[in-house]
Amino acid sequence: MRIFVLSIILVCGFPQIAAAADDITCSGKPRSEYAMSGSNSDNSLDPPPGSGATQIDVGFHLISLSDIDVIGSRFRFEGYAEFEWCDPRQAFDASTEGRSKRALFGDKALTNIDDLWIPDLKLANSVGAVTNTARRMEVSADGTVLLSGFFNSVVATRFDLRRFPFDRQSFAIAMESFTFNRDVVRLRPMADMVGYDENLYLPEWQFKSLTASTEEAGQVRDRVPFSRVIFNANVEREAGYYLVKLSVPLTLIVMLSWSVFWMGKESLGGRMRISSTAFLTIVAYQFAISGSLPKVAYLTLMDKVMIAAFILIALSALENMVAVTMSERNPGGAAKIDRRSRWVFPIAYVAIIAIVALVGGQA
Known about the structure:
This protein is an alpha+beta fold. The protein is built from 7 helices and 10 strands. The N and C termini lie far apart (78 Å).
């Protein structure tokens, strides 16, 4: 008897199920199901219904980078972003409306669609106001929502200056939802919508690539982590300025300090004046460099080259005292020390620079 009753129920209900199956939205479920679930709630507050978190596809095209502030650990960028997700509650009959998409522009894009749910995406590392220069909202007949626009802002980043001035940096632009954690919203980059302007130009930097990744980040505003998508602008510093303005003059100053090895029986005062002048000149160069870098706890590659120069000049001053002191009772021995120093100091300087360049900038 029970089997007979269940059979009647299934037969009577089957036409309704079949008819609903023909009315499919972007999620693959009948629209009637979502109409019932959203009838007693505000769609602008409730995420799209369904099992699991709503998937947000994020695309980003970098247009420009500017105002790179190493001391302040920040930079400004301008870009174009696209956010795409599925909200079956926004599905409509294309044949009835005579169009397959609803499109709105500017401020109307977020205010003129009734009960439109927005994932509330923000720049996670922004340190300034985000300026939107253009905005577009498209809602397809199947419920697919596409929000796009141009925007710019100043964001914070971390600089790794261990290999300065031959360093490479990765400028991160992080996006996440301010309101909805990973259980509600999950972000992922669009594989075909991550790129940069071919004419992008950076003074002092050479742009290499733009990469995308995802992570989960804990925030004080919720116990559950938030899904985050990160676009990394990978750049390499052009070291020509520092080689011409600093490295070459520094090498010449160190070489000048070696001139004392050819001074023979010159007084200690005369030889020490040359070493002192070279030492003070390098100190001035160090202050010139430190003024354009943050006060980091580690040594940069340029710092290590400076320290090597200090040590060699200090050793040349020590050689002055030994040679002048010996010249009074052993002129031959003093001359021998000077002759050997003419080779030992240049070889030591080249070796130190090579070691610093190869391993000195590693973490």
